[in-house]
Amino acid sequence: MKTILLPIWLGQVTRNFFRTDVYHSLIERADVRFVVVTQDEKALDYKREFVHPRLEFIGIKEIGKTRKEAFFSKLALNLLDVETTAIFQRRLYKTEQSLVKYSIRKFITKCIGNIPYFKRAFRYADYRLNSDDTLKELFDQASPDLVYLPNIFGLLDVKFYKEAKKRGVRTVGLVNSWDNTTSRGLMRAAPDSLIAHNERIKYEASSFHEVHGESIHVVGMPHFDYYLTSRPSPKDTFYARLGITDLNKRIILFSPLGIKEDDIGERTIKAFIHAVKNKELPDDLILLVRYSPNQISFFKKEFLDENVVYDLPGFHYEGKTPNDWEFYLDDMQHLYDTLFYSSVLVNYGSTLSIDIAAFDKPIIVIDYDKNAWWRNFNHHTLLRSYDAARYVSDEKELKDWINAYLLNSDVDSEGRKRLLNDQCWKFDGKSGQRLGDLIFQILCNGLGEKSVK
Predict the structure, then answer these.
(1) Is residue 219 exposed (0-12), middle (13-18) or buried (19+ Cβ within 10 Å)?
(2) pLDDT tens, residue by residue, 300-315
(3) What are the sequence ranges of the domains in the chain?
(4) Distant-in-sequence, close-in-space partners of 48: CB < 8 Å, separation ≥ 6
(5) Alpha carbon of 205 to those of 212, 213, 258, 284: distances in Å?
(6) Residues of the chain with pLDDT under 50
(7) Residues 51, 56: Cα–Cα separation, whole Å
(8) Which CATH architecture has domain 231-424?
(9) CATH number of 2-65+105-224+429-445
(10) Comparing 2-65+105-224+429-445 with 231-424, is the CATH topology the same?
(11) pLDDT tens, 416-425?
């Protein structure tokens, strides 16, 4: 019997592991046992939902940041010379108004961050000088043969990596989102094997983070398998869930930015209401304002109108942080239905653009503010390059493109295919199985022994 130990702290990670074939393909093997470390409260819930004799949950308190941890975390954020880093640095300068701090950050990024040796030296120093025995007892108890790190940029995953490295336990890590390799700073953990959703992430991990290409394995996006293996709920069931009584209504899906300064979101909702009332948009439209699960603190039904419906998906733990949410199977079905029954997506260039591309539905990106601080993030620039979406500069262009897409949804379909194929690598419903098989192969035989260049 071989034991896989893994930390799961975020609801997104729970979904991507337990609610995909990654978990199912591994637990079917009689010689694999799991020990999952999570928050105390979540451990109780998981024990009730995921019941198996070879699955154990251990609940722990959140591990706080020490001064050394804070130092290495901040340093890592500045060791990646990409545009997203520069944007964060300029934003900090506006807040702090300290030219000295800004200059130090730029020096670290432009000088030290472009020397491969220093990136490797930083990781070594982080491991040697910033390790502790916080997880010693837990590792003694679990006695793992392999540690799976499903969120390789996460603080807890970094700590698990360090403890595993001390013990000579093999590690497998996953880059779990399309923007992580350009928005989270230098990768602090270089596992024996790194999993990427696509070739682009593999390239960025190798080029930007000094991870050896031979240790990086591309498998696709396991949580997208659901879009091929599931089926939509009946339309009347889905509409009833949202409180929509007229089945002839067509849905325009709007995903707000979910930050305090999102006055553009308010403008967009007002513009939609005004356009429908003035017959500048068809009167059979419903604007479905769907917040991201982690936007609970910004969720508000600010403009009540018969043509606007608000939706906050997921389960949220009371008194916890906005990131403490869970996505159950019902929530996954609700997302599937939302994408399936929507006619057009309006958003700011979020990951929902990739999701709806799986259904080949038109995408509109709000681009009113050319000086918006997030506009030139690396992954936003990448999204533009696919020609998969129309960027609108004002409310008039928004209305024009909603009307155009309603008349012909095939416009920009080729761009949406490029987006989907590049991000998903293989959109075939088998990514979870591929990742599960790969983890099992590494568990038994070992792969990617040389992860750092």
Answers:
(1) buried
(2) 666 788 999 999 888 8
(3) 2-65+105-224+429-445, 231-424
(4) none
(5) 8, 8, 29, 46
(6) 448-453
(7) 9
(8) 3-Layer(aba) Sandwich (3.40)
(9) 3.40.50.2000
(10) yes
(11) 999 999 999 9
Q: Which amino acid is located at 320 in the chain?
A: K
Which pair of structure tokens corresponds to residue 222?
Answer: 């396991």
Give residues with Cβ within 8 angstroms of 62, minimum separation 6. Answer: 39
Number of residues assigned to the chain: 453
Tell how strand 325-326 and strand 315-316 pair up: antiparallel
Query: In this structure, what token pair is assigned to residue 111?
Result: 């000088």
Please measure the distance between the N-terminal and C-terminal CA atoms of the chain and give it in whole angstroms.
33
What pLDDT is attached to residue 374? 82
The closest alpha carbon to 382, from 421, 344, 426, 349, belongs to 349
